[in-house]
Design brief:
The chain is α/β, with parallel strands linked by helices. The chain contains 15 helices and 18 strands. About 50% of the residues are buried. Bound molecules: flavin-adenine dinucleotide.
Length: about 550
Amino acid sequence: MSRFVALLCLPFVHGVNYDYVVVGGGVAGCVVASRLAERHSVLLLNIAGPPPARYNGPVVLTDELIMKTNLTATPGMSAYIHQPGYKPVPHFSTSQTGSSPARFLGGSSVVGLSLFMYDHDMDWAPSWDAKAMQNYFLKMKIQPTYHPNYLHPLTEKFLKVTGSAQVTPLSQRPDGTKITATAAYLHSAPAGLKIMYNVRADRLIIEHGICTGVVVRDTARGVDREIFAGKEVLVTAGYAYSPRLLFLSGIGDANELRAAGIKVVRDLPAVGQHLTAPRFTPISWNTDEPTLSKMMGAPISTGKAVPESFQSAVAEATVHLGKDAIAQFMPLYYAPKSAPMQYSLQGESWPLTTNAYTMLVTMRTAAQGSIKFDKDPNVSPHITHDAMTAEDLKRGEELVDEAKHMGSALPSSGQVEHEQDWSAVYDGRGTCRMGKDPRTSVVDLMLRVHGVKGLRVVDGSVIPQSTPFLAMPEVLALAERAADLIDDVETFAVTEVPFGTPLLSLTHGEESVLGELPVPVGMEGLALPAVCAFAVSCTAVGVLLIWRRPRPAAMDEYCRQA
Ligand SMILES: Cc1cc2nc3c(=O)[nH]c(=O)nc-3n(C[C@H](O)[C@H](O)[C@H](O)COP(=O)(O)OP(=O)(O)OC[C@H]3O[C@@H](n4cnc5c(N)ncnc54)[C@H](O)[C@@H]3O)c2cc1C
């Protein structure tokens, strides 16, 4: 009873404007915010606004555009990536940061290559298996095509000579443009959705074990503001920044929090750990046929541009090498030790000189990684991918041999000689992974943060397993399902029942169920009259605060109806 009174009071105390506050307007944030807004008032917060219109054009973007408009970034939003063998490309902004996730509304779908592959046998956790998820893969507003608008002539040849190769499924429209999460989910979002951008969420507001809101930094004005949620806060800031927001809010490994000088709210050692990402390595062959690198025009390449090729998704054909690996055909040179982002692929300054095609071998690995955070939100996180295991490296050698055999079947003027390195710099999962045990996971199977009420994480960081694929389709399906779970009835999960509670007391009448469930710290044991008195005084204070606060008018300046 007291728990419910406490929850009822909070909206009055803080002057809540929205049922749900969604923190991070990336792939998952766009989906879950727009789905929930079909029935609730929802505020979506993001670091940056909608992507410039140019992002709705060609699939292949230039580093110039990405760097100027995107990763030129908010302080604290680069991601320093460390891993064996990885050398950033000096000529591009990736020279310091590796490829950070994108910051516009739509998140990394805005800079993605539109590759659309996922593990059709996924089995993440109880009730998160392929069967349970199949309807969500069908429901999501971005769907793959197996017949894209453009294939390079070399890819056509590769498909002919390699019987097991397939055209890579892509999330593209019939006109060859890529479908971003912004376009699919925000363009025609329900009226209940408001979007606030140019804000960086720096801390969750957690009182008595309940998350009630978030503190954001207005990056244009350099001031902080508090935003409150009536029902829940949903963290959707991606694999690097979701665990960071938890950490900055006192949720993480207790020792690390203390060392950073942050008050421990909840000891969850798995925050920022168990990072999983596929590893890839390129093998290339020189060719006389002009590759994508030669078709982009000045100043990227010399010679006339072939605009048709701008629709290429680069990894145009795919061969499955067992369950855990793929080899992809790319009609361009992909230098090792470089950040795999758009034209940094080449690892050469412009105009590009090497004309070669590439087989990119990508595999799942048992190796994990972790992310370290500073207590200052202006300091970017450090991401470390561990070295592959000896077993993985051995399997990797076999895969490279298979790919060499396939790549050699095309006419070429010989292999490009270079050392072989496996890198993982694109994508990540697992840093807030789902599970039952708070010692090894961050959220439960309903995506609720262990031990904190009113707070869920809904994005790629909760996915506990790696695949050889990039994660966008899985993140879309996860977020579609999360919206259903969040909108469902309130459940009384047995994980919340104290050990030793007899079944009869749980199932014998509603009152007894509520009586047995844990209550927020500080409220336990309060007599009903005391709780009521507390509720009345909270309401009075709340009314006073609302009356004093100039917030709603100011807020409208930032908000835009989606
Ligand atoms: C260069 C690149 C290419 C890719 N290509 C493909 C591809 O072809 N196919 C594929 O399947 N996958 C691809 N991916 C991976 C895919 O884009 C990601 O798996 C997916 O976007 C993850 O979704 P998310 O919602 O977890 O995070 P994101 O999409 O990264 O979204 C996170 C959002 O949160 C916002 N944010 C972060 N912190 C804060 C904060 N503190 N306050 C407010 N807002 C915040 C960011 O601005 C961003 O908008 C690619 C990724 C990259 C980086």
